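ARCHIVE CARD
Drawer: 12
Card no.: 0347
Subject: one protein chain, sequence and derived structure
Cross-reference: see card 0346
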Amino acid sequence: MTEVNIEYCVPCGLLDHAVETQETLLEEFGKDLEGVRLQPGHGGVFNVHADDELVWDKDEHDGEIDLAAITEAVYEHTHAHA
């Protein structure tokens, strides 16, 4: 099963995005996930790791947090390692 870690910038106010991402992933893939962990960070970070593999970094996407793209990246990781 896949374990997802969402690292988000606390001072930037990205907690709401992290919680929304966590809820979406649990709703979409709940039975296929070991868990979705929120990890407070700083420096503008918003990274999503699946099984320690970086699948989303907002800095690589013009600073955008695209929930549909994050969900797709986790889906691709989950099914590639099934």
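Annotation on reverse: The chain has a mean pLDDT of 96. The beta strands are 2-9, 33-41, 46-50, 53-57.
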